[in-house]
Amino acid sequence: MAMMATKCPGIKVTCIDINEARVAAWNSDTLPIHEPGLLPLVQEVRGKSLFFVGKDKFDEVISEADVIFVCVNTPTKKHGVGAGRAADLSFWELAARGIAKPLKDADQGKLRVVVEKSTVPVHTADAVASVVEAAGVTNVEVLSNPEFLAEGTAIADLTAPDRVLIGGRQTERGFKAIEILANIYRCWVPAERVKTTNVWSAELAKLIANGMLAQRVSSINTVAQICEMTGADVGEVSMIVGMDSRIGPKFLQPSVGFGGSCFQKDILNLIYICESKGLHEVAEYWHQVIKINDLQRARFSKTVIGSMYNTVARKKICMFGFAFKKDTGDTRETASMYVGADLLEERAQLSIYDPEVSKEQMWMDLHEAIDGKIKENKPNVDELVTYETDPYEAAKGAHAILICTEWDCFKEYDYKKMFEGMMQPAFLFDGRRILVSRKAELEGIGFRTYIIGQAQ
Ligand code: UDX
């Protein structure tokens, strides 16, 4: 919305959130999310063409709006039909019901365009249209406009997107609505990159794009395992494979496993759709991408425990990075929470440092991962975990350092200084391959190193 408010002259953008604390944060200089380049953009237009308001303004803002973007979250269902796979659309439906009332009471002569921004499985636009229409709103079109930006690079991705995708009904009014939205994007995106399709293609294309990307990460993570067993170097393998222009170099970086709000959720959605259409083998094919990712996280924990003489109980282990990737404070589905739970199950003592993630967030995520994995005799997070604000403090007295997120600052640390304050033998496990170029130096210092995808 900040990008639209900056790029589209004459457009007024109002963001509504039911959470008052978030609204206050958006109106301050401490935004609720860490995203490089976002604050200056917000500061440029806030109070001029970009406004943040609370729910007391809901009816007024909705009844005035020409275009309404619905950006609520659609987490994976935890219970009931499709639990663990299907998307939970309760927030979406609540939002649809919420906007229906002011729209019904407002001027029905004007076409209202409702835009589905959340990634939702095929058919949701119809469901939303039927909720809104059943409430008596007659002049409304629901479009699907999935977002392809990635966290940490959101501003760059939005400034020059590969494509903008708009799906709508293939009717006269549907085309009119598509044009209204396409014209907003055309303010800064070249017209040939603004693509329009039917609703189902748009919704499915987003799931498949993420599915294909996640599939590449899972594929290269299996290659990393082969390399560890054979002595081939996964960095070299991915460089050579990526030089094939048909394949390309991106998303070939081995890791402790992919995380984030989209990959796992979208693939689970895809699996659910396949299963509900009777495509069981296809569902199983996509399921393997998730299974390999689960394996990758568990394998990292096993490597740590195995290398440290099969016991980490009461040993202090320093974890660098809790966010699911660098340049974001987001921790949804982060590999760190699963690796953390594995180590806590063994009663290791964790000291965690991440430049952007709050202590409260880590606490919640560790509990979630523990509750999902361990049914009895759960470890006590409050006793076993410390959250550090200084990386050197975090490493002090530790038996091992684990790199779980690829933050640039982790590449530059004085590891010799850390080593001197650590228990011996001191281990360093690089789950992101950010210290490959420093491996010889680290071993010279005395570290026992493990780098994902490299034979020992
Ligand atoms: C993703 C999609 O890329 C984006 O198009 C969509 O809109 C939202 O979901 P995001 O979740 O922000 O974006 O992260 P992304 O950069 O795709 O990374 C996902 C995960 O894969 C991260 O944990 C990342 O560290 C991991 N990854 C990525 C690898 O392990 N190796 C790689 O080579 C690339």
Write the CATH fold name of the largest domain.
Answer: Rossmann fold
CATH level-four homologous superfamily name of the largest domain: NAD(P)-binding Rossmann-like Domain
Number of helices: 19
**Distinct bound molecules:** uridine-5'-diphosphate-xylopyranose
CATH architecture of the largest domain: 3-Layer(aba) Sandwich
Give the radius of gyration.
24 Å
Major β-sheet, in short? 6 strands, parallel
Structural class category: alpha/beta
Give average pLDDT, whole number: 94
In total, how many beta strands? 13
Look at the structure and give the CATH class of the largest domain: Alpha Beta
Low-confidence stretches: none
Strand content: 5-15%
Molecular structure report:
The chain is of the alpha/beta class and 456 residues long. The chain folds into two domains: 205 residues, NAD(P)-binding Rossmann-like Domain (Rossmann fold); 189 residues, NAD(P)-binding Rossmann-like Domain (Rossmann fold). Helices cover 46% and strands 12% of the residues. The chain contains 19 helices and 13 strands. The strands form four sheets. A six-stranded parallel beta sheet has the order 10-9-8-11-12-13, sandwiched between helices. Strands 3-4-5 form a three-stranded parallel beta sheet, sandwiched between helices. It starts with a helix and ends in a 5-residue tail after the last strand. The model has no long low-confidence stretch (mean pLDDT 94). The site of uridine-5'-diphosphate-xylopyranose (UDX) has 19 residues, from helix 9.
